[in-house]
Write a structure and sequence with these properties.
14 helices; Spore Coat Polysaccharide Biosynthesis Protein SpsA, Chain A; seven-stranded mixed sheet; alpha/beta; 42% helix; two-stranded antiparallel ribbon; globular
């Protein structure tokens, strides 16, 4: 049974579409999707908004939004998961299903921000040429990693060696045409083959699609979008603040307001970073990293959205501290004042805030 069997498609086929997949009831992913859509609308030229389709099990979450929803029922989600429990298989199935809804489809991961008009990407999607988020690495650069060894054996069965390997792309954005069904049939077949006996990496969907695309030109989309997959916590905090302030009811005002939200995480200014580097010049190893993250959070630019997420720098520091043994943790945290091992943050009021945050995080983990 194919991914498109039994999929209800009440929407008409269109020329171009942005396609999203979102299921489950986690607020954070709903906010991700909505904010991504807002950035697409804010960048699109007036009157040239692309059709936006959402494959979802909760269409009610998008009532009033300028999108079409396609209902995913539980049997469909179960079928898309397959027999091996690999969740990202659903993404490959979603793209395959979405092909029938438009001549050209640009699949968008929800953790994607548009920094340019999305319509500028569609000319790069042609028969035999695809768009992907970004090039990540060549197979020859990763095949010796421990977590890639099993996949390397599986690829070897297809004649792949380091010398004749292929380019691996991030599929956070994937642009294809309605004639690319065979591409995804191959991808899904490979996903099932490579996850049959378990899997050690979670990007098999990207590897399978990159392998299926190995003989065609691929255009990178990174200059049109920002895919913040490695910095999710910072953007989740800013998005939660945005929707708490303005609500989730769609309006043009919401589109305009989304432009106020930074598109990068809260790095201190170049001058502040230089000062922090100087302050930490005598520190080494993990203590230097902890100090940097604590001071970066304190020195974040004075901006409401940065204030809402600067604690995520402190979270990075706490995760490093949690890797230490208990005696080393106590040596740093069981002091009445700011730890002598670390330079003080410029904002004196942050000293107590930071130490309270760190102590609570460490205590909760014990």
């Amino acid at each position: 049974m194919s991914c498109t069997d039994s999929l209800a498609t009440p929407v008409k086929k269109t020329r171009h579409q942005l396609l999203y997949l979102i299921y489950g009831n986690q607020d954070v992913y709903r906010r991700e999707a909505k904010f991504s859509i807002l950035t697409a609308l804010s960048q699109a030229k007036t009157g040239k908004r692309p059709a936006i389709r959402i494959l979802t099990d909760r269409p009610q979450d998008y009532e009033g939004w300028p999108v079409d929803t396609v209902l995913l029922d539980e049997p469909t989600l179960t079928r898309w998961l397959g027999h091996n429990g690999y969740h990202h298989r659903r993404k490959a199935c979603a793209i395959a299903a979405g092909l029938q809804l438009a001549e050209k489809t640009l699949f968008v991961d929800t953790d994607t921000l548009f920094t340019s008009d999305p319509n500028r990407l569609f000319p790069h999607i042609t028969a035999g040429q695809s768009v992907m988020d970004r090039f990540e690495y060549d197979w020859k650069d990763v095949f010796e990693r421990d977590d890639y060894l099993k996949l390397g054996r599986d690829l070897g069965a297809h004649g792949v060696t380091p010398d004749n390997g292929f380019k691996l792309y991030n599929s956070g954005l994937c642009g294809v045409t309605d004639s690319d069904g065979a591409l995804f049939e191959e991808s899904i077949r490979l996903i099932d083959e490579w996850t049959a006996d378990g899997f050690e990496i979670h990007t098999i969907e990207q590897v399978a699609l990159s392998f299926a695309m190995r003989k065609r030109p691929v255009v990178e989309a990174r200059k049109f979008v920002y895919h913040y997959f490695a910095e999710k916590r910072f953007f989740h905090a800013m998005q939660a603040f945005f929707f708490a302030q303005h609500g989730e009811k769609f309006s043009q005002r919401l589109v305009d307001l989304c432009k106020d939200v930074p598109r990068v995480k809260p790095f201190p200014s170049a001058w502040q970073r230089l000062k922090i580097k100087w302050k930490l010049r005598n520190q080494k190893g993990t203590l230097r990293k902890v100090g940097r993250d604590l001071l970066y959070g304190s020195a974040a630019p004075d901006h409401p959205y940065y204030s809402a997420c600067r604690h995520e720098w402190w979270e990075c520091a706490s995760r490093e501290i949690l890797r230490w043994d208990e005696s080393r943790q106590k040596k740093l945290l069981n002091q009445n004042r700011w730890p002598q091992q670390l330079p003080r943050p410029e904002k004196t009021e942050d000293e107590k805030v930071i130490m309270s945050y760190l102590k609570k995080r460490v205590a909760a983990a014990r």
